[in-house]
Amino acid sequence: MRRTVSAAMELDVTSASDLVMAVTVTPLPGLAVDEQLTVTLDGAPLELEELTEATGTRLHLAHADVGRVAIRYDATVEGKAGPAPVDDLDLIAYRRPSRYCESDQLLPTAYAEFDGLAGKDLLDAVSSWVGAQLRYIPGSSKPTDGATETLLARQGVCRDYAHLVVALLRALDVPARLVAVYAPGLDPMDFHAVAEAYIEGGWHVVDATTLAPRASLLRIATGRDAADTAFLTTIGGSVGLRTLTITATVDDLPYDDVTELVQLG
Predict the structure, then answer these.
(1) How many CB atoms lie within 10 A of CB 183?
(2) pTM of the full structure
(3) Between helices 119-133 and 158-171, what is the axis angle to 10°?
(4) What CATH number should be reported for the domain holding residue 150?
(5) In this structure, is residue 97 part of a structural domain?
(6) Residue 112 contacts residue 120 (beta carbons within 8 Å)
(7) Is residue 259's pLDDT more than 90?
(8) Is residue 200 included in any domain, yes or no?
C-alpha cells in the first residue's frame, strides 16, 4: 500500500508564541516513510525541536515571533504497519473518563443500550448506534464540546463521533482512545478522527462516520481525546489560523467491510 499525504497551513501570529504541531505520520514498524516538514516565518525557516510521546506521536515545537507562519508537511508512506503496541498502563488510562469523553456521565446510557454485549459485537453495536444517533454537520459543534453535549445535540463532526464512541466503550470497561489520522477517501478532505478500542488482544478502529475506509488510515496522534491529539497547540501569544489544506491519497482505495475488525496500518 502506497499512501501520499500533505498538510499546509498559514498562521497569523499577532503576539509571539510557541507553536506545537502534530501533523507528521507516526513511524511504526512496517512503514517506510519519506517525509519533509518545513515551517517558515515571513519566508525564513524556523528552528524545530521534535519531541516523541509514549504513544509514538511526534510533536514539533517552534517559537514564532509576530508575522505570517507557513507550515508544510509532505509524506509518502509505503507498506502497512503491524499491530499497535499494547501497554498495561494504557489499558488503565484509556478506561478512565477524560475531558471530552465523560464515560462516568454516560454510564446509564451505555448500560441501557449495550448491556450484555462484548468484544466485536459491542464495537459493532456502539458504532452503528452512534452513527444512527448523530448527523454529520460541519461546523455544528464547538471545539469544547464533549461526548455528553454531542449526544444531546445529536450532531457533530468526526471528533464528536469519536468522543461519543470512546466514552460509551469506556463506560463498559473497554479501553478506548482517540486517534487523529490522514484519511484517503475522506470527503470533504480534512484531518480525521476515529476511535480505537482494545478487544481480542489488540487495538481496533471504530469509525461511526464511515466516511473513509479504515484500512487506508495513517496514524498521526494518539491520546485520551482531542485534547491530546490537536494538530496545533499554541502556548502564550496570539495566533489565528488563516488557511488549512489537507490531502491524502492511496494507490488502491480499499473496500471497507464494516463487519470486519480492522487495525490501523
Answers:
(1) 27
(2) 0.96
(3) 140
(4) 3.10.620.30
(5) yes
(6) no
(7) no
(8) yes
Residue 265 confidence (pLDDT): 79
Q: Round to whole Å and give the CA distance between 92 and 97.
A: 11
Gap between the Cα atoms of 60 and 53, Å rounded: 11
Residue 13 maps to which CATH number? 2.60.40.2250
Task: Give the mean model confidence (pLDDT) for residues 34-54.
Answer: 97
Give residue 198's Cα distance to chain centre.
Answer: 16
Q: Which residue carries 460541519 as its cell? A: 138
pLDDT at 197: 98
Q: Which amino acid is at 153?
A: A
Q: Are 1 and 79 in contact (CB under 8 A)?
A: yes
Residue 30, domain extent: 2-80+233-247
Q: Which residue has the cell 491519497?
A: 249
Cis omega (within 30 of 0) on the bond before 45?
no
- Which residues, 6+ apart, have CB-to-CB distance to 263 below 8 Å? 83, 84, 202, 203, 204, 205
Q: What is the mean pLDDT of residues 225-236?
A: 96
> pLDDT tens digits for 69-118?
999 999 999 999 998 889 999 999 999 999 999 999 999 999 999 999 99
